[in-house]
Amino acid sequence: MGGAPRGSLITVSSGLRQRLIELGISPGRVRVLRNGVDLARFGPCDREAARQALGLTRPTLLAVGNLVPLKRHKLMPHRSRQTCSFFWRRSAS
After folding, report:
1. 5-24 as b/e, with b when 16 or more CB fall inside 10 Å?
2. What's the CA gap between 2 and 31, in Å, rounded?
3. Which run of H or E residues covers position 32?
4. Which of 30, 49, 51, 61 is the most buried (most CB within 10 A)?
5. Do residues 8 and 27 make contact, with C-beta atoms less than 8 angstroms apart?
6. 29: DSSP letter
7. Phi–psi pair at 56, nearest 5 degrees
């Protein structure tokens, strides 16, 4: 896909594009450039084989994304403890 013409607005989803159109932006000025995963290159694989290849032997929490404050990655250790505690309590009942 080529670059957006001058005066265009770029969104990362069709939902955001639609919202801009609803706000009065001409549909011809709004382009969607997804910033997701290249599905031709990455896809589901055998979980155990992947864990073994990466040397993961314990439960693992993984996050992929831009490490900016807005994403609140610093909360992951706290939230993962809460999640684990919740599931351990449920499995014990």
Report:
1. eeeeeebeeeeebeeeeeee
2. 11
3. strand 30-32
4. 30
5. no
6. G
7. -90, 115
